[in-house]
Amino acid sequence: SSSREACRLRSTSAKAAMLGDESETLFRVQRAEDGVPDLTKIPDIDNAGISLNLQTRFKRDEIYTCCGTILVACNPFKRLKYFEADDVRRYMGKRFGGEPPHIFATAEAAFDNIRQNEGNQSVVISGESGSGKTETTKLILQYLTAVTSNPVWIEQQILDANIVLEAFGNARTLRNNNSSRFGKFTQVCFSEEININGCIIEDYLLEKSRISHQAEGERNYHVFYQLVACCRNNPEDKLRYMTENVKWYHYLNQSSCVAIEGVDDAKMFDDLRRAMTVLDMPSDMQQHLFSCVSTVLLLGNLEFVSIDDGEAVDFTSNDLGIIQKICIMLKVEQGALKKALSYRQLVVRGTVNDIPLKPADALANRDSAAQTIYERVFKLIIEHVNVKTNPGGKMSTFIGVLDIFGFENFKINSFEQLCI
To answer: Is residue 179 among the annotated active site residues?
Structure first.
């Protein structure tokens, strides 16, 4: 390798000598230890060279590096002043590579292709958990709304849709306090005048297992803690949603983490309600959704008692109290709910047979019911957002932003992780 490097240097020096001294910097070998802005310019593009180059730039708070047309972003885990109005103006109308690497440069490249009638565009954002994919998605939306002339209400609905989806679809993990636990493809829709006139969101693979099980140090979805925190200070909501202390809930107390430092869950719930209102979500619909969220938490505290030598289950006195609360909030019959929680149905030749659940099966059935209710709540929210933000036939082109959440390796990995 040293002989190859010597040949490369001699060749570079010869070219510089032919073109004059002022051209020497143009042909000088760019080293990884210098932290060059484009990885394709370093001599050896291997793991060591790439890591060294990124590390050098990261220490200088240069979190963006190009690799050809690909942008590599390193999460700084702190606020940087790279995303102000002046930065937007710096990249407006500039060709990709004409300015230092930046997510705004990538967004501008996609937007310019729209302007040049190159057809629909997409930005694919990938990376491990905690790498900053969700924040990158927000920055792209921030740039696109800044460089176009749009009605204020459209911009506000797009931004508030993110607040709602983060509350119901994000959670604290060991790597990230606000990790998206679902994938989403956001189509930012443009009119013929190249202004934003709406958006369409398609979701993928909500992490349902988190609802009933969390790893040590992680949290369930934000909305659970936000609802409980709100009800702690609001007697009317506490009565409506029949909440308890956050540490009482089995679905919230498994991981020894019920709060995030510097985050006020009660305030976040106020922001969530405001965002729902901006998205024209009626108050009765909001109440229905939060009743379902409370129901999911209550289901987790059902314990069951074994009967008939472990061949069936019955309900404890605490279980009966929980079932009564759930039936009031969901407006269902107690008998029907108790049967659904303690029996399974088997159809044989057109005849429906009720088979008692064993204790372990009853607990699994409980978790499955909670996960299904929450998933349907999430789908309902996505549908409502799309109804309010979808421009329909007024869309001419779109820029799609694909934010796929990162794979994580747990102690016990389910089929769900394999799908991710």
So the answer is: yes
Q: HSE, CB side, 13 Å, CA atoms: give it for residue 199.
A: 27
Among 75, 130, 135, 234, the active-site one is 130
| 220 a catalytic residue | no
Examine the residue annotation and report whether 183 is marked as an active-site residue of this protein: no
Q: Which residue has the tokens 């759930």?
A: 326
Judge whether 306 counts as a catalytic residue: no
Decide if 216 is catalytic: no
Task: Answer yes or no: 245 catalytic.
Answer: no
- Give the C-alpha separation, 175 to 308, whole Å: 46
Per-residue pLDDT of the chain (420 residues; tens, 9 = 90+): 444 444 443 444 433 344 444 344 444 668 899 999 999 999 888 999 999 999 999 999 999 999 999 999 999 988 898 899 999 999 999 999 999 999 999 999 999 999 998 899 999 998 887 888 989 999 999 999 999 988 888 888 988 999 999 999 999 998 889 989 999 999 999 999 999 999 999 998 899 999 999 989 999 999 999 999 999 999 999 999 999 999 999 999 999 999 999 999 999 999 999 999 999 999 999 999 999 999 999 999 999 999 999 999 999 999 999 999 999 999 999 999 999 999 999 988 888 899 999 999 999 999 999 999 999 999 999 999 999 999 988 889 999 999 876 666 667 777 777 777
Catalytic annotation, pick one of 62, 108, 207, 408: 408
Whether 180 sits among the annotated catalytic residues: the reply is yes
Of 136, 145, 176, 365, which residue is the catalytic one?
176
Residue 356 Cα distances to 238, 251, 337, 362, angstroms: 35, 25, 14, 9
Comparing CA positions, the residue from 398, 139, 387 lying closest to residue 279 is: 387
Active site residue 333: no
- Which one of 145, 179, 186, 243 is the catalytic residue? 179
